[in-house]
Structures are given as structure tokens and as C-alpha cells.
Amino acid sequence: MFKLRHNRLERAHNIADLRRLARKRLPAPMFHYIDGAAGDEWTLRHNTRAFDQYELVPRYLVDVQEIDTSTTVLGQPIEWPVVCAPTGMSRLFHHEGELAVARAAARSGTLYSLSSLSSVSIEEVATSSDGPKMFQVYVFRDRELNKELIRRSRDAGYVALCLTVDVPVPGNRERDVRTGMTIPPALTLMSLLDIARHPRWAWHMVTGKPVVLANVAHKIAEGSSNVSTLAQYIHSQFDPTVTWQDAAWMIQEWGGPFAIKGLLTAADAKHAVEIGASTVIVSNHGGRQLDGVPAPIEVLPEIIDAVGDRAEVILDGGVRRGGHVLKALALGARACMVGRPYLYGLGAAGEAGVSRALEILRTEFTRDMALLGCRSIEEIRPSCVRRWQ
Question: Which of 5, 16, 217, 345 shows the greatest Cβ crowding within 10 Å of its Cβ?
Fold first, then answer.
């Protein structure tokens, strides 16, 4: 069985191949939870298509025998400029969940970001690998909960904190409504039948530890093993009154490398830097919040112009190829974040699938650097791209 799975992964030559494998291996509600987005999902599609607006401009007769892909993000040296984005409830897609992703990220020489809505705790992920880790959080109504999560992250050795700001309310994710992946769950008959057609996934869900929001399970005295109860609690903690003052408070509370994720304008990026953020993550939440907004690659140049000399800028959204990473770096990004690509790998084959997703992107990126005539990250400059439409 292991050899068969290994062969299938070897035949996955790109992220789209891993997506197809994940679709076969996962029940429909779980696959579409990864794959779907808000509204008509225009932004989801546009995030990747927008990279096509830029052409790569290679230089030849350059000695590219040695390629150095290393860089530094949030004060941490990493081997290549792609980091794993925070994604919630990863044990829904494979029973090893966040532990598998953290281990694969460490082996790939990059940084892993743990979601505050993770299905494995801050502390357990911290001990799962020796790679650098960032913890992602929201400004919750219960500020004591924020203080607790920050303290636990600091005590567990996380190197940075990431505040996501584009979820004042949940987005309109219609795929989840159709499949029953709502809060509370409302699985349809067809969804339940589809789950029954995936016995391996169902077996691990039934026999393994319950899937919970591990970082907040202790906040509910009764029903703390019920993911629906916990999810309702955490959704009640999203605060639509959050302002820049709250973000500034969190930066002060953390006192270290700090990223603000979910910004799409130069004005917001400037504000983030002014209150003390060291990193700006240009993101539209993978199209899962407001449909119809610009792709991160489209607004990246104006954000670089606004804050690129004062803060690191990371692009998050639409990356499916190593060439996409090259284009983002040429436009000024320090690195890119990926979420769906590694989740497809996780759903397809657990930790081995995550490793395969990162291997695919890293191999593409390294090869494309050589073909572009760039021997190091420093040589990836604006002259390496040209906008053609």
C-alpha cells in the first residue's frame, strides 16, 4: 500500500495533480472546504490568473551551475522563499494534520505558520519539529484569550506572530453551505454517503483523537470535545469592532517580529508599518472572504513602493508554480505563502503529500531561477519581469 501511494505521489508532477489526488482521497465536504472560496469564486480563480499579466525576462550566458535559494524571513534564515500559510482544522484532511505539515516544512527548510484555529495545540506542534514557526491569531473579543495565546506561543518558542485582519465577519462560502461544512455542521444525505465511500478517512476520524479546536478547547466547560460547540465559540469571538488600536496593542503585547496579514492597499500597509509591524502579508484570504477584490500580485507593486524600504512584504494567494514565486520576488516580495498547495498534498497522502507539494514548488523555483539567469535571490530584480497587459 505504501509503495502504491509513493508511486501515485511520484506521478504527481505539479500542484494540479496533487489537487486531483486529494479530490479522490477526501470526502467531498472536506475537499471542497479546502478548494472553495466566497461568492462566485471569481477572486479564487483571479488570484492565479493574475500572474499571467507578467512575463519573465531571462538573461543568458550566465554561469548558473550553483543556485542559492536561501533568504531570511521574519528574522529567520530559510532555504527557499516559500513559507507555509496558517490553515485551520488540518486534521479534517488527514489524521496527522498540522503535525504532518510542520514536519514537512522543517525538512524543506522553511517556516511553518500555525493557525489559532488549528486542530493540534501550540505546544504539540512546537515539539513536533525543530523548524521555525509563526503563530497566527485574530483580535478576539476576549482579550485575555489573546494574551494567553501570545504567552503560550512565546513560551513554546514561536519566532513570530501573525495577525489576520480580513475576517471581521465570515465570508460567504457557498460550497460549504451546499456540502454542510457550516457552523454547526449540516451534512446532507449525499455528503454522508460520500463520506461512507471513503472508509480509510472515516476510519481515522472514528478511531483517532476527536478533531477539536485544540487551542481553545479548555474555554468551554461542557462539550469541549465537540468541534461544533468549539467552532461556535470561536466564531462568537470574531470582533467586528477591531481597529488599528487593537492591532497596535497586540504588537506591543508580543514584542517581537510581527506580521499583519490580509492587506490589499498601500494606505493599509503604511498604517501597519506605522504601528510597528515588521512584515506585511499581501493577501485576500485565498478568495475566501470578499469576492471581487484584486489579486495580491496586482497590488504588490504599489505596496512595495509604499513600505518596501521599511518592512518585509510577503505575497499570499494564487501561487501554484515556482514561476509565480519568481514573479512575486521580482516585483519586490521577500517571500510567498502557500496554503491550498500543501493542503492538497496533505489530503492526498498526509506528510508525504505535503513534502511532495513543497518539493514540486521548490524544484520548479530553482529550475526557473537558473533558466532566468539568476544565481541568488538578490539577483531576482524588477528587470526580470515585464507586464504585457
Answer: 345
